[in-house]
UniProtKB/TrEMBL annotation, chain A:
Lineage: Bacteria, Bacillati, Bacillota, Bacilli, Bacillales
Protein name: Chemotaxis protein CheW
Native source organism of the sequence: Chengkuizengella axinellae
All residue ranges annotated as the CheW-like domain in the record: 4-145
UniProt cross-references to SMART domains, sorted A to Z: CheW (SM00260)
SUPFAM superfamilies per record: CheW-like
One Pfam family recorded for the sequence: CheW
UniProtKB/TrEMBL annotation, chain B:
Catalytically driven reaction(s): ATP + protein L-histidine = ADP + protein N-phospho-L-histidine
Organism lineage string: Bacteria, Bacillati, Bacillota, Bacilli, Bacillales
Name of the protein this chain belongs to: Chemotaxis protein CheA
EC numbers on record: 2.7.13.3
Keywords, sorted A to Z: ATP-binding, Chemotaxis, Kinase, Nucleotide-binding, Phosphoprotein, Transferase, Two-component regulatory system
Length: 153, 722
């Protein structure tokens, strides 16, 4: 048996995803976003989070999924890796959940349209639900943005 | 070892002393006969050595010890300073700096100083064999018995009613803070009587207490045994020996040194004022116990002319350094005038200042918000209160910004030495003049500006100033002049580096630029002198015929320019072939709060730094002309390009008015007009970075938070001129 890890559970479309609590600062409701020009389209812009300026990424856009309208349920999860801090727009943030590290399996090639390199693994919550665990380091990988820009340009 | 807690203090102080040493040795090089400087250097070296020894950095103390030996000979006129000695001293200073850096980075401060110690030692023994350190020590213990007339008369008088002792105190070998023990011994003794003479003097304890031996003349009416017990009660005291002294004994000790002493007293006065680094205890004992030594006539003669020069420098306030020829540079006055304020300062962790700044900037955002709200609500009392708060916070803002200001001196300090060394290694003769070292700049800018300046100065020496032979050939004085100048102007600080060297060779630059494919042959024909001079900032450009280790690796000036732009500054070059080159750097006073013009385009708001704006204007659509396929307008008899903010930033919106609102931006001599939908107004904004995730965004230098809580992006005007 491995150790218990805490994950924030959120949803994109019909899938449930998780990010480790250790990398989450806060969860915010939608606020006005200031667009930053000449950036990839999934970078929605910057917000004022209690006096500091924070970039916001639409997670759907980041994974190349179809973007949807923001609703009452839409949340911004503020995450950080080392000295990079960003907000991730998700359809809804539901719960905090304990997952035993022993029960995490490696992810298949593609889950819900998201490639395995962005994933840390998947974990079964109960009989018919699985949680897809994000690999934040890859999600926030800046080198890839540069490549994306070159590709688009 | 319990000395860890003193380490930071030690490093700070040691650095100060080292800077002091560097400055003074340099001055001495220009005025080798100046004994006052030698004294000061000696004292700094001495204090440094004592500190190092206390902290257990033996290599540091052994090196300073040798330096001191050399200096001691010099100040006693037994050794004449020459180039070799100066080089050795500078080399030792370099070693000391390396060791200090090592200690600072958590190292042990160990270094291989054997060579340099040997060199110094050879200076001492080589020409003056009889002056080796053992003899010096001998002198010290002998001098412990010697009494001057005043001491003699005091003791003589006391003998009538009291007991006079000659006391020998031995301190434990392993004692870490000998000064403290000596202090305890003296205070104990002073409770029961009077100390007439103590050897070594308190400030010399760390150095001269070689045998851990303390010698005192002491008057008391208490029994020997009681005193003995009292002193032995102090920890780390090895032994005490009391000798009763009679009249015959003290009569014998009055030497032939009395005549010298009066001079010493006069002499000491100015020095005591200068000795800011030494502790008060030291100063007192210095007065009590002037060191007895011979002063010859030459020294007194030397003093006269220097005093005159001192006053001259006082008036001009200009520091002058020179590598090659003697220039008088005494700035005692400067130090004295600065002293009162220094004693009232405290050291504050810069992190605390940063936190204060951040907190204040949040307050500023709220202030703007409050101002907006109060004008909406329009309630008398509320408006008054908010206005008052605005005024107070404006005052606080000034103070907070001022707290972060530092004189640029801390950067300039190291240049005289650098110029001297460089000039020497390049065989060039240079007079280096610094003005405006007291100009204040934001600490962040100070931290960053050092490297670019080093680069420009190296360039000036390497490429700019010619060799003495070449200068003579061109009817110039043999010695080149290098000016480093800093001054305030408006909301900016200017730093200029100017030399009277060979200037920029237009043809040579063009050749290289074409060869390195920075420009094409056709471009070259059309370029103005100024444009050509700008070329040296292009990356991969180096005009040095051969690559030296000083400059000319071709990674230079473009990096300098990038760095200065990153600081929100600009660099200009002005050069006349044959007459020299001037680099002029313009820097913002602060990086944290700036004046900006807020503009609106479609639904978006942007802030444009006021420092780049020349003016705002209204323009009719028909005024736009097309030249070279670029949209231009006529502005003050010149054609300047016109850009649309909505195109620069792909801002949606189809609103197309008849009259355009334009902002004219300026960088150097270049101007550009920007069309915006609407001017919102001028405002103080707090700069915020976009964070580590969003870097290198085109034409955006950061963001700010507006009164309504929304984020507005700050336009980087520099990007629009490319």
């Amino acid at each position: 048996m491995g150790e218990d890890l805490k994950f924030i559970m959120f949803s994109l479309g019909n899938e449930s995803y998780g990010v480790e609590v250790d990398h989450v600062n806060t969860i915010e409701r939608m606020v006005p976003i200031t667009r930053v020009p000449k950036t990839p389209s999934f970078i929605k812009g910057v917000i004022n989070l209690r006096g500091s300026v924070l970039p916001i990424i639409d997670l759907r856009g980041r994974f190349g999924l179809e973007e949807s309208e923001y609703t009452e349920q839409t949340r911004i999860i503020i995450v950080f890796i080392k000295d990079i801090e960003v907000g991730l727009i998700v359809d809804a943030a539901n719960d905090v959940i304990d997952i035993n590290s022993g029960s995490i399996e490696s992810a298949p090639e593609v889950v819900g349209g998201i490639r395995a390199k962005y994933l840390h693994g998947i974990a079964k919550i109960d009989q018919d639900r699985v949680l897809v665990l994000l690999n934040l380091t890859e999600v926030l990988n800046k080198n890839e943005i540069v490549q994306l820009e070159e590709f688009e340009g | 070892m319990s000395s860890d807690q003193y380490l930071n203090m030690f490093i700070d102080e040691a650095k100060e002393h080292l800077q002091h040493l560097n400055d003074n040795v340099m001055k001495l090089e220009n005025t080798p006969g100046n004994m006052e400087l030698v004294q000061e250097i000696f004292r700094s070296a001495h204090t440094l050595k004592g500190m190092a020894a206390t902290m257990g950095f033996n290599d540091l103390s052994s090196l300073t010890h040798e330096m001191e030996n050399v200096l001691d000979l010099v100040r006693n006129n037994q050794l004449q300073m020459d180039t070799f000695i100066f080089d050795a001293l500078f080399k030792s200073l370099d070693h000391l700096e390396m060791m200090l850096t090592d200690i600072f980075e958590g190292g042990t401060g160990k270094a291989d100083v054997e060579d340099i110690v040997k060199t110094l030692h050879n200076i001492v023994v080589g020409e003056h064999v009889q002056e080796d350190s053992s003899k010096q020590h001998q002198e010290i213990s002998n001098s412990a018995y010697v009494l001057d007339e005043y001491q003699h008369s005091v003791l003589k008088k006391s003998l009538e009613s009291k007991k006079v002792f000659f006391i020998k105190v031995l301190i434990d070998e392993g004692c870490l803070l000998k000064v403290a023990r000596v202090y305890m011994v003296t205070t104990t003794l002073e409770r029961y009587g009077e100390i007439v003479k103590i050897t070594p003097r308190v400030e010399d304890v760390e150095q001269e207490l070689n045998d851990n031996e303390l010698l005192l003349y002491y008057i008391s009416d208490v029994e020997e045994q009681i005193l003995h017990n009292e002193i032995m009660n102090i920890s780390e005291i090895y032994s005490v020996q009391f000798d009763r002294v009679d009249l015959e004994f003290i009569d014998r000790q009055v030497g032939n040194n009395i005549q010298v002493e009066d001079e010493e007293f006069e002499d000491k006065q100015p020095e005591i004022i200068q000795a800011e680094d030494q502790q008060i205890v030291n100063k007192q004992s210095e007065i009590d116990q002037p060191k007895i030594k011979q002063i010859d006539d030459k020294k007194l003669e030397d003093k006269q002319p220097e005093d005159v020069i001192k006053t001259e420098n006082k008036q001009t306030g200009i520091k002058q350094y020179s590598a090659g020829v003697k220039v008088n540079t005494e700035s005692v006055s400067e130090k004295q005038s600065r002293k009162p304020s220094m004693s009232r300062t405290i050291r504050v962790d810069t992190d605390k200042l940063d936190t204060l700044m951040n907190l204040f900037s949040e307050l500023l955002i709220d202030r703007v918000r409050l101002e907006a709200l109060s004008s909406e609500i329009n309630h008398m009392d509320l408006t008054d209160t908010v206005e008052h708060m605005s005024r107070v916070s404006g005052d606080i803002q000034n103070i907070v910004l001022n707290l972060r200001m530092m004189p640029i001196e801390s950067v300039f300090n190291r240049f005289p030495r650098m110029v001297r060394d460089l000039a020497k290694s390049l065989d060039k003769e240079v007079e280096f003049i610094i003005t405006g070292a007291d100009t204040e700049l934001d600490r962040n800018v100070i931290d960053e500006i050092g490297d670019p300046l080093v680069h420009l100065i190296r360039n000036a020496l390497d490429h700019g100033i010619e060799s003495p032979a070449e200068r003579l050939q061109n009817n110039k004085p043999e010695k080149g002049t290098l000016l480093l100048r800093a001054y305030h102007s408006g909301n900016h600080v200017f730093i200029e580096i100017e030399e009277d060297g060979r200037g920029i060779d237009r043809g040579k630059i063009l050749d290289i630029a074409i060869k390195k494919q920075i420009i094409s042959q056709e471009d070259a024909q059309k370029m103005s002198d100024e444009q050509i001079q700008q070329l040296i900032f292009a990356s991969g450009f180096s005009t040095a015929d051969k690559v030296s280790d000083i400059s000319g690796r071709g990674v230079g000036l473009d990096v300098v320019k990038t760095k200065i732009n990153a600081l929100g500054g600009q660099i200009q070059i002005h050069s006349e072939e044959g007459n020299g080159t001037k680099f002029s750097i313009q820097l913002p006073l602060t990086l944290s709060i700036i004046q900006a013009m807020l503009v609106k385009q479609g639904e978006e708001k942007y802030a444009i730094p006021l420092s780049s704006i020349v003016e705002t204007d209204i323009l009719q659509k028909k005024d736009i002309k097309i030249a070279h396929n670029i949209e231009m307008i006529e502005y003050r008899d010149r054609l300047i390009p016109i850009l649309f903010l909505k195109n620069i930033f792909d801002i949606p919106g189809s609103y197309d008015p008849i009259d355009y609102n334009i902002v004219i931006l300026q960088q150097g001599d270049k101007r550009v007009a920007i069309v915006v939908d609407e001017f919102i107004g001028q405002q103080e904004i707090v700069l915020k970075s976009l964070g580590k995730y969003l870097t290198n965004i085109y034409a955006i230098s950061g963001a700010t938070i507006l009164g309504d809580g929304h984020v507005a992006l700050i336009v980087d005007p520099n990007a629009l001129f490319k």
